[in-house]
């Protein structure tokens, strides 16, 4: 898909296995430098309009790769999430593991969820934009549900073993506001 905006070309590349959706904005005002930044789950790349063909592809790929190395969790697989949960379970929840853990895109009001009966943990893809320590705190919260299904005192004794649990709550409250999600809609830990 491509379009023109203010005389500049805009091309959107669909997401691929190893990278998110990329919007390329070729600007006549840019002469030498490029820029890449996140806009939600999409990467916006701004490049000089003079770049064409292979040189353009290489320039865009380099900017996207540089951005992804700053936030490797954005493209983390379910297997990487499972490995992370195994480490966190050993550190904070006595090694108790879920039957599965995976990223899901259908959670609109929760950051993550756990079904104690099936021992499954699902993490919203919106969490991919969060710092590692926030994802870790959310995972420990969900792992605690494997011990205690409700939010009882015993549950919080386990969940709060993660040292940044309260900071995580504050971060997610702010993140929800930034996403335009009301606090009634957001299930903040």
Helix content: 25-40%
Shape: elongated
Which structural category fits the helices and strands?
alpha/beta
CATH topology of the largest domain: Zincin-like
Mean pLDDT: 83
The CATH homology group name of the largest domain: Metalloproteases ("zincins"), catalytic domain
Q: Report how far apart the termini are.
A: 39 Å
Domain YgjP-like metallopeptidase: 98-162
Compact overview of the structure:
The protein is of the alpha/beta class. It has helices at residues 53-70, 78-92, 132-144, 153-159, 165-178, and strands at residues 2-5, 8-13, 22-27, 35-39, 42-48, 100-104, 112-115, 120-124.
SSE arrangement:
Elements lengths: L1 E4 L2 E6 L8 E6 L7 E5 L2 E7 L4 H18 L7 H15 L7 E5 L7 E4 L4 E5 L7 H13 L8 H7 L5 H14 L11
Parallel strand pairs: 3-5, 6-8
Antiparallel strand pairs: 1-2, 2-3, 4-5, 7-8
Helix pairs in contact: 2-3, 3-4, 3-5
Describe the fold and architecture.
- The chain has 189 residues and is α/β, with parallel strands linked by helices.
- It folds into 2 domains: 2-70, no CATH class; 75-178, Zincin-like (2-Layer Sandwich).
- It has 5 helices and 8 strands, in the order E-E-E-E-E-H-H-E-E-E-H-H-H.
- It has helices spanning 53-70, 78-92, 132-144, 153-159, 165-178; strands at 2-5, 8-13, 22-27, 35-39, 42-48, 100-104, 112-115, 120-124.
- The strands form 2 sheets. It has a 5-stranded mixed beta sheet, with helices on one face. Strands 6-8-7 form a 3-stranded mixed beta sheet.
- Helix 3 crosses helix 5 (165-178).
- The two termini are 39 Å apart.
């Amino acid at each position: 898909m491509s379009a023109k905006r203010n005389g500049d070309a805009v091309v959107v590349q669909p997401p691929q296995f190893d990278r998110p959706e990329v919007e390329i904005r070729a600007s006549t005002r840019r002469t030498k430098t490029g820029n890449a930044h996140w806009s939600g789950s999409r990467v916006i790349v701004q490049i000089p309009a003079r770049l064409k063909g292979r040189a353009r592809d290489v320039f865009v790929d380099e900017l996207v790769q540089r951005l992804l190395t700053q936030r490797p969790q954005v493209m983390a697989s379910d297997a990487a999430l499972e490995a992370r949960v195994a480490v966190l379970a050993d550190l904070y929840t006595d090694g108790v593991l879920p039957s599965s853990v995976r990223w899901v895109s259908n959670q609109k009001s929760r950051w993550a969820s756990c079904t104690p009966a099936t021992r499954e943990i699902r993490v919203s893809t919106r969490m991919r934009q969060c710092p590692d320590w926030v994802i870790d705190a959310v995972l420990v919260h969900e792992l605690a549900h494997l011990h205690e299904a409700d939010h009882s005192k015993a549950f919080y004794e386990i969940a709060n073993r993660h040292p940044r649990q309260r900071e995580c709550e504050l971060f997610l409250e702010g993140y929800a506001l930034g996403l335009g999600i009301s606090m009634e809609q957001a299930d903040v830990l």
